[in-house]
Specification:
Strand content: 15-25%
Largest sheet: 2 strands, antiparallel
CATH architecture: Orthogonal Bundle
Structural class: alpha+beta
Number of helices: 3
Helix content: 55-70%
CATH topology: Arc Repressor Mutant, subunit A
Low-confidence stretches: none
Number of strands: 2
Radius of gyration: 16 Å
Mean pLDDT: 91
CATH superfamily: Winged helix-like DNA-binding domain superfamily/Winged helix DNA-binding domain
Strand order of the largest sheet: 1-2
Order of helices and strands: HHEEH
CATH class: Mainly Alpha
Length: about 80
């Protein structure tokens, strides 16, 4: 995805569209940490998760599910 695609996807998911001034520094930091890779094709810059970024995302998702699963189960049985 390029920065504009990321911004549009965040708007779709969250209801608000972040500015380039928000997206660009975040992508720069993710690149610095080795979590995303950048590729330029002409005037378009695209970003993809690196192997380390993908592993980190999977780890974070598993952690989230582990932590919140019990809460979700308790909430669903109260209704």
């Amino acid at each position: 995805m390029n920065g504009q695609d990321i911004s549009e996807e965040l708007k779709r998911r969250r209801g608000t569209k972040p500015t380039a001034g928000t997206i660009s520094p975040a992508l720069k930091e993710l690149r610095r940490k080795g979590l995303v890779k950048m590729e330029r094709k002409g005037r378009t810059t695209t970003y993809t998760l690196s192997d380390e970024g993908r592993q980190g995302m999977e780890k974070a998702c598993k952690y989230f599910c582990c932590v919140f699963d019990e809460i979700f189960q308790q909430y669903s049985t109260k209704q």
